Each structure stands twice: as structure tokens, then as C-alpha cells.
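Exam prep: given the inputs below (a chain plus NDP), describe the expected output before reading on.
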Amino acid sequence: MRISHTTVDGEETYTHDIPSFGLGVFLMSEPGECKSACLAALRAGYTHIDTARAYSNEHEVGEALKESGVNREDVFITTKLRRMHAVGFEDVLEHCQTSLELLDTDYIDLYLVHAPPEDMDHRAPVWKGMEHCLEQGWVKAIGVSNYGAHHLESMREYATYLPSVNQIEVNPWLQRPELRAATESVGAKVMAYSPLARGHKLDDPDLIEIANRLGCSPAQVAIKFCHDLGCITIPKSSREERIVENLASLGVDLSDEQEALAAMECGYISGWDPTSEP
Ligand code: NDP
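Solution:
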């Protein structure tokens, strides 16, 4: 998939190819857990890893990259500016440099503001800092996460480059057609986090029924649902057999299950939801 940044004049710039499927590494807090999951994913054929400063494991992503022997340009690394660090222009530059050091890499493929800065006065200078990182080549693309439609719309007032991605929770229980459309209207792609609703809903009888009809696992149905919506999809697992299973979900055909999947929407938020904040 191709991502780009739309300027206020409607021009597309700083385009970059992004794999539409990747490994999420949130809640891998045991020492070595993230590194071994990344190594398993790279062995299985994953080409995209989604980390964040807040996950305290960027260094393990970097170690896995080095140890795997995979060429840097063959892996796409997304990381995020921690919300508590999103307070000003200089802060962004400093934290971007720290992430580069922790990841032990010359560039980050995609750098996201983890959530809208709580102080509204910080939103413009933080984004200006992100744009500086892009212009310097420290990062190949910039974006946001957990931005609601109103947060995205107000970026038109201060952004030179609109975001290339908005990473939000999307899964069969939280389908978000309006927020996905609002994301696309600023030229950004949707990245679906918590495609398994953090594992909370894998015993949903409707999901299990679909999986049984198709002869695949419930997790594979939920993951493929997000991918079929056109979302970059980043399920997390620390277990090698599930890492392999989750990638294989891309081969599942959900075309006869559209109605059953649409009916699963229930507005379930599995973790936090800053998209509804002011
Ligand atoms: P997911 O929806 O990916 O679910 C992960 C849970 O499901 C874990 O408990 C995992 O357990 C379990 N699981 C994974 N695969 C399977 C399977 N095949 N069968 C059964 N259970 C399975 O949750 P996340 O919240 O981690 O979301 C994915 C990624 O999205 C994160 O890791 C992070 O990168 C990103 N994210 C971003 C957020 C943001 O604010 N921007 C917020 C939340 C997530 P186990 O590991 O034991 O397999």
C-alpha cells in the first residue's frame, strides 16, 4: 500500500510504501519477549512492526532487526511519540532522535503522534516538529493515532503536510465507518489497532460461527475483516504459532460473510478512546 501526505494545496508528497499487515508489540513487557516475537515474525515473513516509546521496547525491536539479518529497507518500522512527550516543537525532535537511537536505525518509516496532545495549544507545535522530522529525513512518513474527525479537521489550520496515517481501534465490534471516512478525507490511510479487541471477544459466538463455516480460526476472521476494510492491520501476539496463524488470515475469504460481520458492531472499546476527547 502507498501512503502520502496531502499539502493544503491538495498536492501529494513524501510518498512511501507501507506493508498493509504487521506485528503489534504492545504489552510485551517481559525482558526479551518483544525481541523474540519480532524474530518469530520476521522468520514467518512479516515486514512491518508497530512499536511505540510508551511500550518501552523499541530497543528490542532494534536488536531483533540486527539479529535477524534482514536488510533494514525490507522491514517497515512504525513508532510513536509518547503522549506525555507531545508538548512542543523541540521536544518532538529530541524524542524522535531518542527513538532512532533505541531502534538503532538511521530512519523510522512511520512516526505517529500517539494521541492528540491533551493541551490543545500543543497540537500545532507538535505537528510542526513532526513535519521537521519528515523534512530532515529522520522519518519517511508522519501520522497520528487516536485522532477523531474533529482533531483531523482542525489540522487543516496548522499543517503543511496532512497526516499519512491515522491509527485507531477498528475490529468487527468497533467498525467506525465515519472515522474511517474522515481519515480518508484528509488523504490518510487507516491503521487498525487491537483488531482482536485485545483478545476480549474471541469467544463471541457469532465470530466462532463464521470461523466454523470457513474452517479458519476466530482470530483470523477478525484480522481479515480489518484488512478487507482497507486498513493496515497490526495484531499482537507473543506466541510463534499465533504469529504464523495471524499472517495466514490474509488468505481467508470473507466474501460470503459480509452481513454477519456487519451485524457484530456494538461500539465496544477494548482499551482507551482519545478520539472522543475535545
Ligand atoms: P490485539 O487486538 O492485537 O490482541 C492481542 C491479544 O490477542 C493478546 O492477548 C494475544 O495474546 C491475543 N492473540 C493474538 N493472536 C491470537 C490468536 N491467533 N488466537 C487467540 N488469541 C490471540 O491487541 P493489541 O491491543 O495489542 O493491538 C495490536 C497492536 O496495535 C498493539 O500491539 C500495538 O502495536 C497497537 N495498539 C496501538 C494503540 C494506540 O493507542 N495507538 C492502542 C492499542 C494497540 P498472545 O500474545 O498471548 O498471543
